[in-house]
């Protein structure tokens, strides 16, 4: 009676869960590695399956014994306990056999570990820098050398807060994708500017912690074209869940085309630091910079966040005070806080614009800051 | 028969009671130096912390029920994951086994009390202050630290004053553990009854002896790591800052040099409990007692040379990766020996399945599952793919919850009749087991899939393809939380029950507390040493 009740309860529960999962979303349920897009990812997959099968066989064997004993050696069926409590042969066997199995596993694994570490002779070298909370990319060597951009989450805030339906690539989309050529060995040099982050593309089998002050490297060679997505995998503060990584693998021709266009676009976008800007233009430009970077801590209302030690900018005497104060803070950051040095990430114009914006929004009123003044404060 | 010794002990006890009983009321608990009172306080403390940490887990799962941000802002979410981890590890799981040690070790080796009775009082009373600091950190400007229970530098430098409270709490917890361990080591080495040689001690005592050594060796390392964090935060040092010649990865090396032995500090006493429970309900002596002792010692020693397997993705040299992979694989051998021994103990026994045995079987099955996923993670390339994903979360919850917590439940049901003098309600106990088992697997089994599919840990929001498993996991968490209320009810019902328990309710139990002491155990026991033949 009891057993049948339990089974019917379980059946009801699982039906409920199935209904729930069906209603959840149109997405297929992901339950295993993404389809490998590199030989390394395929080998990782293969190693995982080998180990899983070995484990499964041992697991079924050992617990076959346990459940058989639970069934056949019960007191309720009148089984009398035997009193044996050691057997040297058996004990040696079950020490030696697992050791041999482990050696069997270790051998092929060792070869993959060594291959994974071999970052020599790359076709393209890209430096990745983790920032709170975005990724910076610098194409250091190979075709496209000199390309440099910052890549941030493209999912709108409204989707995250549930005010808009969530898009297909919710939390896995960025404004600037990393583009690499198919079939080429790409070396990724990973570092960070503030705290530890980790760069990961599951389908390429490439993951590396980004450690501030240190350079580490990994490599991958994509086997097929496509867009591959990953996320930061080392807790790096408030927006840790919102700094994805997107790599687009394209054919060699497409890559050359992209690299050429990107370079031109970067050159065109580069502002002349000596140009005199109109205040309205500066504020409009600054609003964009603020929404992309500063808003994470200082908030859209300029009220800041005590939890992040981010002071309110609205009504802040320092912000509306002497111009070099805010300029130095944005250029060089504040030690031991999430306020990082932005001199690498932002141009003189962008810094001038965002400071002008902060000095003239939320009721603040102060003089504008021109790019030339920022340039003068750079050391 | 034991009855002779029992009568003698009992007569003596009555005599003792007349002269120096405990204070009444609250003063009894504040001033007590009695190992049983202190054990009781450890157990209740750990249940309170288990409830607080559990509530935090429910909060985490509530936020993760659906994609998007609903209940918690990301900062609060990070604070909850951090404090859930710290409270469960240092506030719930470690103290529960110290509670067992206090109650059981003197009774199992025939000693009247712990070696340093006042020190024992002090090592307990440090804990409520540490716990208060941890909880208070939520109410500081900036809230509790949101850095993960591992407290990696340099993120810790950005935190508010809550981080400092947490550091001081870790200092207090470490002091408490070290004092407790010194007490346990001294008690076991010096206060065994005549005839209780080391190799005749119950395995629970053995595992605690080894655990206590691990604690004395590992806790100061953690204290060092958090103190360096403290001076980096406030006194201008740069241990973990490259700009001043330091290295953030150094913190991880120090932390995990403590952290991996810590895994076994949590697991070994549980192994000890299971090694008492399985023979008792199999009515058969423990298989391979000597090899169990050697395997436990081997695990303890190897646990000090595997730490960097938590750090495969920091970018170690290839020789470092290979060394730590091989060492990690080796630790599977003695762990395997223990599992084989437990199964061999059940083999051809005469098994019954009261609640302690159910929890022991649940432990055996699921701890082994957690051990196997640990073997998967020892493989460097596979680990690199799964590092910091939900696969790791699933893996260590199988070890910590299905391992340590299930062993603690087995121990509570096993010894509750001895401690309270009353039998618990067997039917309710079985309900507690099955509900906990089902809901536990509902929470954590599916997290293996999440990890394989690539969901990072410690994120408050996730891409849409992870939604289904997260929903199942969250529902399991709510059920698991409710099931623990049943446990509280069972324990209170047992304490208030009027059904007396026999001296030895478990037919196959054979250690001194069952054979030599009445139920309930008197306030003072073994005032005259028993002689073990």
Question: Could you describe the 3D structure shown?
Answer:
The complex is a heterodimer of chains A (379) and B (533). Chain A has 379 residues and is of the alpha+beta class. Chain A has ten helices and ten strands. Chain A has helices spanning 2-24, 39-72, 88-116, 157-160, 252-269, 279-298, 317-320, 324-332, 348-359, 371-377; strands at 124-131, 134-141, 148-151, 178-181, 185-192, 197-201, 206-210, 216-221, 226-231, 244-250. In chain A, α6 packs across α9 (348-359). Chain A starts with a helix and ends with a helix. Chain B has 16 helices and no strands. Chain B starts with a helix and ends in an 18-residue tail after the last helix. The longest helix of chain B is centred in the N-terminal third of the chain and has 36 residues, at 74-109. Residues 1-18 of chain B have low confidence and may be disordered. Chain B is mainly α and 533 residues long. Chains A and B meet through α1, α2, α3 and β7 of A and α4, α8, α9, α10 and α11 of B.
């Amino acid at each position: 009676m009891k057993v049948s009740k339990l089974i019917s309860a379980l059946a009801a529960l699982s039906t409920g869960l199935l209904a729930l999962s069906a209603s959840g979303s149109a997405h297929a349920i992901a339950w295993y590695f993404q389809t490998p897009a590199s030989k390394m990812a395929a080998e990782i997959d293969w190693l995982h399956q080998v180990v899983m099968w070995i484990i499964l066989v041992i697991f079924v064997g050992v617990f076959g014994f346990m459940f058989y004993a639970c069934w056949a050696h019960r007191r309720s069926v009148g089984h009398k306990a035997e009193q044996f409590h050691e057997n040297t042969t058996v004990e040696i066997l079950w020490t030696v056999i697992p050791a041999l199995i482990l050696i069997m596993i270790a051998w092929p694994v060792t070869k993959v570990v060594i291959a994974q570490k071999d970052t020599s002779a790359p076709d393209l070298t890209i430096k990745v820098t983790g920032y709170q909370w975005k990724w910076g990319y610098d194409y250091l060597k190979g075709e496209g050398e000199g390309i440099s951009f910052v890549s941030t989450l493209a999912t709108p805030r409204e989707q995250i807060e549930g005010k808009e339906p969530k898009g297909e690539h919710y939390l896995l989309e960025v404004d600037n994708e990393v583009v690499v050529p198919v079939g080429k060995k790409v070396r990724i040099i990973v570092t960070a500017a503030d705290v530890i982050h980790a760069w990961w593309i599951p389908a390429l089998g490439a993951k590396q912690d980004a450690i501030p002050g240190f350079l580490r490297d990994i490599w991958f060679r994509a086997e097929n074209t496509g867009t591959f997505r990953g996320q930061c995998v080392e807790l790096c503060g408030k927006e840790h869940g919102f700094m994805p990584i997107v790599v687009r693998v394209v054919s060699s021709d497409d890559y050359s085309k992209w690299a050429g266009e990107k370079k031109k676009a970067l050159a065109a976008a580069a502002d002349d630091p000596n140009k005199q800007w109109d205040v309205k233009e500066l504020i409009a430009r600054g609003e964009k910079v603020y929404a992309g970077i500063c808003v994470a801590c200082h908030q859209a209302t300029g009220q800041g966040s005590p939890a992040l030690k981010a002071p309110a900018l609205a009504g802040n005497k320092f912000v509306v005070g002497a111009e070099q104060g805010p300029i130095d803070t944005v250029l060089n950051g504040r030690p031991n806080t999430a306020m990082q040095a932005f001199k690498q990430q932002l141009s003189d114009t962008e810094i001038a614009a965002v400071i002008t914006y902060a000095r003239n929004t939320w009721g603040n009123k102060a003089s504008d800051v021109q790019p030339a003044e920022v340039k003068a404060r750079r050391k | 028969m034991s009855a002779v010794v029992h009568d003698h002990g009992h007569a003596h006890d009555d005599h003792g009671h007349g002269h120096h009983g405990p204070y009444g009321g609250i003063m009894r608990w504040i001033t007590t130096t009695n190992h049983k009172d202190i054990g009781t306080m450890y157990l209740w403390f750990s249940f309170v912390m288990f409830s607080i940490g559990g509530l935090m887990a429910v909060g985490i799962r509530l936020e993760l029920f659906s994609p998007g941000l609903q209940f918690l802002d990301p900062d609060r979410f990070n604070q909850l994951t951090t404090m859930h981890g710290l409270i469960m590890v240092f506030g719930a799981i470690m103290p529960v086994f110290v509670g067992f040690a206090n109650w059981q070790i003197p009774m199992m080796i025939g000693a009247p009390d712990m070696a340093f009775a006042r020190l024992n009082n002090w090592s307990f009373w440090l804990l409520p202050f540490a716990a208060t600091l941890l909880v208070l950190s939520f109410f500081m400007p900036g809230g509790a630290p949101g850095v993960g229970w591992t407290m990696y530098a340099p993120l810790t430098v950005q935190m508010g004053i809550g981080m400092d409270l947490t550091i001081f709490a870790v200092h207090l917890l470490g002091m408490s553990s070290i004092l407790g361990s010194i007490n346990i080591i001294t008690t076991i080495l010096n206060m065994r009854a005549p005839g209780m040689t080391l190799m005749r001690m119950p395995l629970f005592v053995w595992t605690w002896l080894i655990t206590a050594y691990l604690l004395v060796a590992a806790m100061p390392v953690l204290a060092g790591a958090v103190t360096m964090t403290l001076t980096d935060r406030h006194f201008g040092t740069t241990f973990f800052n490259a700009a001043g010649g330091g290295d953030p990865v150094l913190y991880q090396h120090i932390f995990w040099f403590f952290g991996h032995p810590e895994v076994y500090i949590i697991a070994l006493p549980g192994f000890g409990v299971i090694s008492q429970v399985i023979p008792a309900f199999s009515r058969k002596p423990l298989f391979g007692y000597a090899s169990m002792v050697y395997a436990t010692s081997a695990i303890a020693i190897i646990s000090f040379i595997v730490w960097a397997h938590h750090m495969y993705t920091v970018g170690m040299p290839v020789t470092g990766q290979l060394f730590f992979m091989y060492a990690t694989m080796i630790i599977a051998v003695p762990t395997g020996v223990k599992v084989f021994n437990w199964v061999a103990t059940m083999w051809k026994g005469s098994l019954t399945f009261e609640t302690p045995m159910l929890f022991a079987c649940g432990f055996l099955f699921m701890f082994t599952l957690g051990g196997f996923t640990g073997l998967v993670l020892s493989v460097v390339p596979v680990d690199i793919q799964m590092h910091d994903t939900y696969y790791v979360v699933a893996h260590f919850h199988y070890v910590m919850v299905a391992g340590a917590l299930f062993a603690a439940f087995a121990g509570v049901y096993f010894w509750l009749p001895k401690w309270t003098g009353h039998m618990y309600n067997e039917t309710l106990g079985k309900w507690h087991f099955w509900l906990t088992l089902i809901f536990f697997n509902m929470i954590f089994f599916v997290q293996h899939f999440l990890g394989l599919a690539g969901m990072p840990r410690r994120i408050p929001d996730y891409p849409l393809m992870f939604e289904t498993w997260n929903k199942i996991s969250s529902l399991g968490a709510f059920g698991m939380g409710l099931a623990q209320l049943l446990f509280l009810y069972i324990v209170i019902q047992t304490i208030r029950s009027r059904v007396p328990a026999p001296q030895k309710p478990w037919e196959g139990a054979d250690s001194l507390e069952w054979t030599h002491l009445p139920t309930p155990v008197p306030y003072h026991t073994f005032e005259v040493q028993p002689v073990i033949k």
